[in-house]
């Protein structure tokens, strides 16, 4: 159950990130109605974590998940561009 709470938190934070206008992970941002969906996922996640873990541990895990997700997600497009750059660099060198 703890893992379910953690996965719901990840899904909620990712959905909330994708509704922002400055996100660069997908071509178009998600509509604002998905913020409600993200909020429901985060609320369910928090409830599961509080039930299955001590309160302070649940709060800490919930907040640290947000920090890690929102720190890592913006860099995913950079990694994708770097990978494409490496592929073209290797194909040019193999000729």
Automatic annotation (TrEMBL):
Keywords per UniProt: Membrane, Transmembrane, Transmembrane helix
The name this protein goes by in its record: DUF3325 domain-containing protein
The species this protein was found in: Acinetobacter stercoris
Transmembrane segments: 6-22, 34-51, 57-79
